Every structure is written in C-alpha cells, then in structure tokens.
Amino acid sequence: MSIPSDYDEDYVITKHLIEEARNNLVLRSPLRLGMPVRFLQGTEDTAVPTSQAVKLLEHAEGDDIRLTLVKGADHRFSDGECLDLIQKMTLVVIKRAG
C-alpha cells in the first residue's frame, strides 16, 4: 500500500515496515542514551508533529540531550540552513563524545 506524500514520492507501507516499527517503539520502555544526542525538528513538518519531538526529548534519559526546533523547516530538513545545522550538530556531538 502507498499513501500520498507532500514530497516527490508516495510513502510505501509494507507489512515488513509495520512489523519493524512495532519492534522499535522507543516510547514504551526507558530510553537511556549514554552519548550526546541532538534532535532537530522543523516546525512545518507535516509528517511528525513538534509535540512528538518534545515527547521524545522528555522521555529520553541522558546527560547531554537537546532538541532544536527550526521555524519553517519541513520534514525533509534539507534546505541550506538545515543542512548547515545538521553538519554543525554532528561536529558538536563528535567533539563531546570524544
């Protein structure tokens, strides 16, 4: 089955995808993250609401976890500003983990 997407291709939903998702539900049990983590979320993401990102942030346990909301960014998070932020946060996490 496929469902329409706001982007180039429809989302393809397979039985394997659903089973895999059920095996990886992170909000059902403690989520201890023993490394630096950066969640990045666009406020115009129509696939994942910002409330879900906040819920994940509140659920995760760790010493160095942050959520950055980017006003106007969509689910792709792929414009120049977002890509720069991904690169910057990746470098920050690598430096803090080392």
- Major pleated sheet: 2 strands, antiparallel
Q: Count every helix, treating DSSP H or I runs of 4 or more residues as helices.
A: 3
The sequence of SSEs as H and E is: EEHEEHEEH
Based on Cα principal axes, name the global outline.
globular
User: Which strand-content bin applies to the residues?
Assistant: 15-25%
N-C termini distance:
43 Å
Q: What is the residue-averaged pLDDT?
A: 93
How is the largest sheet built, in terms of strand order? 1-2
Total DSSP E strands? 6
Radius of gyration: 15 Å
Give helix % range.
25-40%
- Strand-pairing-aware structural class: alpha/beta
Low-confidence stretches are none
Commentary on this structure:
This protein is of the alpha/beta class and 98 residues long. 37% of the residues lie in helices and 20% in strands. It has 3 helices and 6 strands. The chain has a two-stranded antiparallel ribbon. Strand 1 and strand 2 form a beta hairpin. The mean pLDDT is 93.
Task: Give a brief description.
With 98 residues, this protein is α/β, with parallel strands linked by helices. It contains three helices and six strands, in the order E-E-H-E-E-H-E-E-H. Strands 1-2 form a two-stranded antiparallel sheet. A two-stranded parallel ribbon has the order 3-5. A two-stranded parallel sheet has the order 4-6.
